[in-house]
Structure formats: C-alpha cells, structure tokens
Amino acid sequence: MEVIIVKDRDEGSELAARRLRNRVSSKPASVLGLATGQTPELLYRKLTEWQDSDPVNFKQVITFNLDEYMGLENSHPESYHYYMTTHFWGPLGILEDQRFIPNGLSKDPQQECLNYEAMIQEKGPIDLQLLGIGRDGHIGFNEPMSSLGSRTRIKTLTESTRKDNAAAFSSKSEVPYHVITMGIQTILEASEIVMLAFGDAKAEAIKGCVEGPLTSVCPASALQMHPRCKVIIDEAAAKRLQYQSYYREVYEKKPSWQKAEFV
Fold first, then answer.
1. CA 197 – CA 203 distance, rounded (Å)
2. In 3D, which of 69, 3, 1, 60 has the Cα closest to residue 32?
3. β-strand pairing of 62-65 with 31-34
4. By C-alpha distance, which of 236, 194, 234, 244 is closest to 9?
C-alpha cells in the first residue's frame, strides 16, 4: 500500500485523474472499475475538461461500476446509472456495450449478482479500480463485518451509511435499504487500486484502512493485502495517521520512473 498525502481535494483528484488517463493511454482497451458519490466527481470533471485540449481515446475501455441501489429506475437522479451517465459515460463517449453496472431493478437480484460477477471474470481482470471510503471504513457497499472473501452480492445498508447518503435525496427515508455491490475479494483482484479520501470525516476510516489491523470491522483494511494499491488523501484525512512523515518522505523520494505514472 502506498500512501500519498496531498494538499487538498483538487490536487488529489488531479493526481488520480492523471493516473487513470495514463493507464488508458498505455492500454486503450483497459478495464476500469469505477466509483460514484461526491469523492470522485472532481476527478471525472478533470478528465472531461482535459479531453478538449489533450484528448485520450476512451472508445475501447470497458467499465464496471462498484455498486447500484436496488429499486431505483435508471432515470432516477440518485441512481448510480444516472450518475455515471452524467459524470463519466456521457462526457467521455462510453458506449452502452462498454459499460456495466448492476441492475438494481432485476426481478431475480441473486442471479443478477452471479451474472455480474461472471461478467467481471469474463471481461477482466479490472486493470484499475477506483475507490472511495465510507466513514465506517466501507468500500463499495461492503459494510463493516463484510466477509473479506466476498463476491458481488446484495447488501443491507447500515443506518450510518443511509444517513451519510441522505444528502443526495430529499430525506433519509428515500434512501434505499438494499444495494448490489462488488465484494471485497472481487475488488482485491483488480491489477491496481486507487483510493481517494478527503476531509476530516474520513480521518478515522483512513487510519483503520492504512494502519489498523486487518479486520472485517474496517473492510477497507483488506487493501493492505493488495500488491499495488495507492491511497491518495488530503491533509485532513491524513491527520490520524501515525507515520505521516514516513509516507511523505517515501513519495518525495520516489524515482522518476515511478513518478511518471502521474505525469
């Protein structure tokens, strides 16, 4: 796990956006695992803006989304299908046969989970998986106590997650209780993982993820086992970390060929 501490959200989003662009530039048919929510919005906006002056061909990529609410129409403004259409698929010209997201309206959701997992195995492996992290340490919608060996499945959201997500809805009562999400083992099979976290509210979760014990209580701690995981965080999200100076020194002293990943 590589921890990269940046000044703020803007710097962190740009760093991650450049890593994603470089991945697609070097492998145009990349398989991307994508996240939703507030954390990656600025990253997606930067990708779109750069296309005007320095375009990268996204026409061959395949995308898999981490999760989707159950029971929301694709046209619902808080569905992740709508989010992706607005922030990524539409602006970057990702065609329908290139994008995959769980069907939260499936009449057989358990079979939908099996089908989605099978599609990831068929099209993958995922070359680069983008992640955020919940305040309780969840990744995707793998809430605390999720199996570290889990695959795509149905999950029931905790009250804290529903409360955090309520800002996007008219009220908490409108936030669905159930979702379909990639499992932790599915996420760990990506060739590379880039996690973003910004703000004070994520500091405790980041401490558990990076320096805490490997435990299902903090699902993100499973990322400690990944051989190529980058955790990009701002000063506020880093404030609980014990080894901040070490992380800063390691990143500052990286050889030029490693730093080129982000140029």
1. 8
2. 60
3. parallel
4. 234
Task: Return the SS3 of 105.
Answer: coil
Instruction: Verify whether residue 54 is a known catalytic residue.
Output: no
Tokens of residue 212, six digits: 């805490």
CATH topology of domain 2-262: Rossmann fold (3.40.50)
Active site residue 136: yes
Distances (CA, A) of 21 to 46, 83, 142: 10, 20, 27
Known catalytic residue: 138?
yes
Among 81, 87, 138, 226, the one annotated catalytic: 138
Q: Which of 68, 117, 127, 136 is catalytic?
A: 136
Give me the torsion for CA of 260, 64, 54, 51, rounded to 10°.
Answer: -150
Judging by DSSP bridges, how do beta strands 67-69 and 178-181 pair with one another?
Answer: antiparallel
pLDDT tens digits along 120-147 = 999 999 999 999 999 999 999 999 999 9
Query: Which residue among 68, 117, 127, 143 is the active-site one?
Result: 143
pLDDT tens per residue, range 152-175: 999 999 999 999 999 889 888 999
Q: Which amino acid is at 152?
A: T
